[in-house]
Structure formats: C-alpha cells, structure tokens
Amino acid sequence: MYTLNSRLGPFTNLLSLAEAAEIWRIDQSTIRKAIEAGRLKPEYDCRKFGKQWVVTAGAMRREFPRGASYWDMYIADLRKQAGLD
Q1: Quick check: 21 and 31 in contact, CB under 8 A?
Q2: Alpha helices of 1-85 — where are they, by DSSP H?
Q3: Beta strand residue intervals within 1-85, DSSP E
Q4: Span 74-78, mean pLDDT?
Q5: d(C-alpha 52, C-alpha 66), whole Å
Q6: 3-state class of 69 per DSSP?
Q7: pLDDT tens track for 4-59
C-alpha cells in the first residue's frame, strides 16, 4: 500500500500511475487506457519520464470523478501529518 508521507510541496499534485491508481482505487491499466484514448493529454495532464508516467491530480479528478473523494481524504491525511490542520 502507498504510504502517506508528511511533506506537502510543489509536486504533491503529481502522481505516478501506481499512486494514482491506489488513491483512486482503480487499476493502472484504466489510467493507461485513458492516456491511449487521449482523455489524459500528454504534456498537459500527464507525462512520461523514462519508463514512468506521472499524472496530475486535477486530470484524475476530471476523468475519474468518482474517486475524487479518495484524493480529498489523501490530501487531508497529508495535511494532518504535516501539522497543517
């Protein structure tokens, strides 16, 4: 399981496909299919670094709205761990 860390920074909204899939509770292949179908736009919503894809949380919220509440819980946990709440 993805372990929440206590840092909030400029990259908080960038997620690996594995992280996004776990937070949104969907399979990584679902996200890959969204990229292949053009629903997640490379260079805007997602980007490949070497063999690793990253996706923005905003794009995930837009394309997979049912999982957005999981993202909200994830951010709330991060904020709590960082002592921001």
Answers
A1: yes
A2: 17-24, 28-36, 57-63, 68-81
A3: 14-16, 46-49, 52-56
A4: 84
A5: 25
A6: helix
A7: 444 556 667 899 999 999 999 999 999 999 999 999 999 999 999 999 999 999 99
Q: What is the dihedral of CA 26, 32, 45, 84, to 10 degrees?
A: 30
C-alpha triplet 29, 62, 69: angle, nearest 5°: 85
Token pair, residue 62, equals 């837009």
Note the Cα 60 to chain centre separation in Å. 6
* Cβ atoms of residues 6 and 82 within 8 Å: yes
pLDDT of residue 2: 45
Q: How many CB atoms lie within 10 A of CB 79?
A: 14
